[in-house]
Amino acid sequence: MNRRRFLLSVYLADMASLFLGIGYGSWVAFGTPLLWSAAIPGGGSPWPFVALMAINATVASWVSVLGWARTAPRPTYGRALAIVGLTVGLTAVALAFTRVYWSRPMFLAASVAFLALALAHRMIRRRRPWTEPMVVITKEKSLAEELRDAPHADVLEVFDPSEESPTEPLDAATSLVVDLRAVLSDEMAQWVSSCSIAGNTIRALAPVYEEHTGRIPMVHLAEGWELSQPVRRNTYEVFKRPIDIVLVLLTAPLWMAIAAVIWVTVHLDSPGPALYRQERVGRRGSTFTLYKFRTMVEDAELDGPKFATESDPRLTRVGRVLRKTRMDEVPQLWNTLKGDLSIVGPRPERPVFVDEYIAKIPFYADRFLIRPGVTGWAQVNYGYADDEADTIEKLTFDLYYVKHSSVWLDLNILGKSVWTVLSGFGAR
User: Fold this and answer.
1) pTM beyond cutoff 0.70
2) C-alpha 351, offset from chain centre
3) From the centroid of its chain, how far is CA 119?
4) Which residues pair with 291 in a beta bridge?
5) Per residue in 305-345, pLDDT tens?
6) What are residue 203's phi and psi, to 5 degrees?
7) What is the distance between the alpha carbons of residues 409 and 415, in angstroms, rounded to a whole number?
8) What angle do CA 200, 203, 209 make, to 5 degrees?
9) Which member of 214, 231, 354, 398 has the greatest number of CB atoms within 10 A?
């Protein structure tokens, strides 16, 4: 389906859900779903309230579309919650300032029905997921294959840019994805031009790869400015630190209670301190002390630092459970309050490994352009890396987050982190 048509259809379905919800609210509050024939107490008019709901739903949908700017749009339940929540919140604020007529039972019933219907039409849409049909022109076959494996990219053909052009015209709904680093043959360049004139969407390979895979194509990075410039322009980073502090303080009673239980359990399970301190590299290469609950036996690294492995014999009984559920990282919320970490960001690494990878892996240092996090995009998508090849793969996710950090991406990561904890994905 065409991207713009897809987004419009979702918006129209949400607006239909809203007006059906308002009809349900009218029935609950006034005994009839036909608001224009309802007997309003005191002779008030419900139409200003309806207009506020419609305007705010449109604003919420537009904000959601902004979050889709760098990712393939999908009918997710999280966006339904966000759109309805923002609509209700904006309407509540508007009602407080304008003092137009509104009915509390109607507002509550309409909001609940709006959410239920928004979730329902997404559930129906998800039976046939949105995909973007495309033809790719590139020499980078590995990128084309990774794009082909993406769930929302339908790669129909892959052409070599130096070869002769295909003879068949593209279907109008098919996008033509062109590697801008490649030199096109005269025939291929003419074919791309004719496709553009015929109305096909022409897109660059790098952004298409990013939005469908959630990764950065490393071969398309030139000198790192592609990452540093978006970080400088990202206003979200200004607000992220206050948001981190508020979230940690609001959840402090819960995580402090959990920490107390884990503290006692670790002490009872094996000799040694409950807390483990380790030096890590943070934003702009600065080092800090990271706190974790101890999951290994004492003196586990007498022979020097090394990666954890599957069924690592150094792990204690409680340590295995803590690693699997990520509960060993609860003390890092203290690091978040101190400013060493953010709740979401690239995971901080140990200096000994960082020095090695900066020397060997291009653009590895760019992951330190932003504050590291307790959880991150690479953690929920790739899991644990225990060698250089895995680290490079994981880096493609970290650099994607560096470039596209946003509140919507953070919410996505936090939602996936819940599944990571429940499933033990990537634990070592």
Assistant:
1) yes
2) 27
3) 19
4) 277
5) 555 555 666 778 888 888 888 888 999 999 999 999 999 99
6) -130, 150
7) 10
8) 135
9) 398
